[in-house]
Write a structure and sequence with these properties.
eleven-stranded antiparallel sheet, elongated, Glucose Permease (Domain IIA), 13 strands, 6 helices, 2 domains
């Protein structure tokens, strides 16, 4: 009977490990495919740049090529960081399981040691010996029952001790594997971070070559006009996605209320902004997304005297002195990260009350889609554009863009 319990326990343990392993393998495969796709796209852009002539390499198109590579590398690094964090959680969980199992083994060993000492001192009691030691039938029965139960429990402890040792060894092997996998992720991340630094340097080198070329400057203006439309479309898409999601959650809650057997909806990330503090209350006293900087392009119409052009700005352009950190102006959830020609890497954060903030021209990105962030949380670093280190910042209320200078605190 005890052996059956032992083998059943081991069987279910191994089966659970097998299915957990299958789930993890599936996730690992999906992540590998995602990373492989990003790397393939980067190689394609690298080959496109290599095929360009010497003159073509010093163009706005080449800058966009590097700019998109930077975005993809940020995406790659972000994915590796998430995997590293996930692996760290697995390691902590495995360490906790090992610690708990060691405590259990210690107790089992202690109990079994007492039993062995008792046998050594007094010998294994036979069923007949108790008849000669006791003169009361009641005491006789109780002692017989106690010795039987004591012996049975010690045998179970011994079997459990053996099983626990086997499980402990499996957990130790699993822990070593997880540590090796984490080290590999760290090395991959460090390699891609070095690659990103190199790409940023190459991108800035192209910028220096085209900065005084009016024809290339006009190409950037044209790209920014299209970027405004893409930002607007992206905001509309996010509004529709949030509306659809809210409706699905409402129906799921209604179904759960009416049907006790119904299961609640399962979502990978929580994009709800209901738990955040009021965004609207920040008007006129909002913190700036960068520590220092000067607004060089205001909200609305702007004239470029050098090129004799007029453009409409959906936000403001803040010029800073270097690759300064960009921080969230309020608590929210990162709802989109994208690359848009003219604006480069773009991060959109959703806030309470159907408000959204847009941060563009980023070189490095520190967040991932679905991250819930506090006010003053680091989003990324300002990237260099034709006009220098510029952060393009927008505020939207539903589909209507707002003047950020009305919202930001006076300096």
């Amino acid at each position: 009977m005890v052996k059956n319990i032992k083998y059943s326990f081991l069987f279910y343990f191994l089966i659970s490990i097998f299915f957990i392993g299958l789930t993890q393998q599936k996730k690992i495969k999906e992540k590998k495919e995602e990373l492989s796709g990003i790397k393939k796209e980067i190689r394609l852009l690298e080959n496109q740049y290599k095929r360009k002539s010497k003159k073509e390499k010093k163009s706005y198109a080449s800058f966009l090529n590097f700019n998109k590579q930077n975005y993809l590398l940020n995406k790659l690094i972000g994915s590796l960081k998430k995997q590293e964090a996930g692996k760290e959680k697995q390691i902590k969980r495995t360490k906790s399981n090992i610690s708990n199992l060691k405590k259990e083994i210690k107790i089992l060993r202690k109990n079994y040691s007492k039993y062995v000492v008792s046998i050594y001192k007094y010998g294994q009691p036979s069923e007949w010996s108790i008849f000669f030691d006791l003169n009361s039938l009641q005491r006789l029965f109780l002692r017989y029952k106690y010795l039987k139960e004591f012996s049975k429990r010690r045998k179970k402890d011994l079997e459990k001790l053996k099983t626990s040792k086997a499980i402990l060894q499996n957990l130790k092997t699993k822990l070593e594997k997880e540590k090796r996998e984490k080290q590999l992720l760290v090395r991959q991340k460090q390699k891609e971070e070095k690659n990103l630094t190199k790409k940023i340097w190459e991108s800035n080198k192209v910028l220096r070559a085209i900065r005084k070329d009016k024809s290339e400057l006009k190409k950037e203006i044209s790209a920014k006009k299209l970027a405004k439309v893409r930002i607007s479309n992206l905001i509309t898409k996010l509004i529709e996605r949030d509306r659809k999601r809210a409706e699905e959650e409402r129906l799921a809650r209604l179904k759960t209320k009416n049907d006790i057997n119904a299961e609640p909806g399962d979502y990978n990330v929580d994009l709800s902004t209901a738990g955040f503090s009021s965004f609207a209350s920040l008007k006129g006293r909002m913190r700036w997304p960068v520590r220092k900087g000067k607004v060089i392009k205001k909200f609305g119409k702007n004239r470029n005297r050098r090129l004799n052009t007029v453009t409409v700005n959906y936000g403001i352009d803040i010029k800073v002195f270097s690759d300064m950190n960009v921080k969230s102006v309020a608590e929210g959830v990162v709802s989109a990260i994208d690359w848009i020609p003219g604006y480069g890497s773009v991060v959109i954060v959703s806030h309470k009350g159907n408000y959204r903030t847009v941060y563009s021209h980023l070189d490095k990105i520190y967040v991932s889609e679905g991250d819930r962030i506090n006010s003053n949380f680091g989003i990324g670093k300002v990237g260099e554009s034709i006009n220098g280190y510029i952060l393009h910042f927008e505020i939207w209320k539903s589909r209507k863009n707002q003047n950020p200078e009305v919202w930001l605190a006076r300096r």
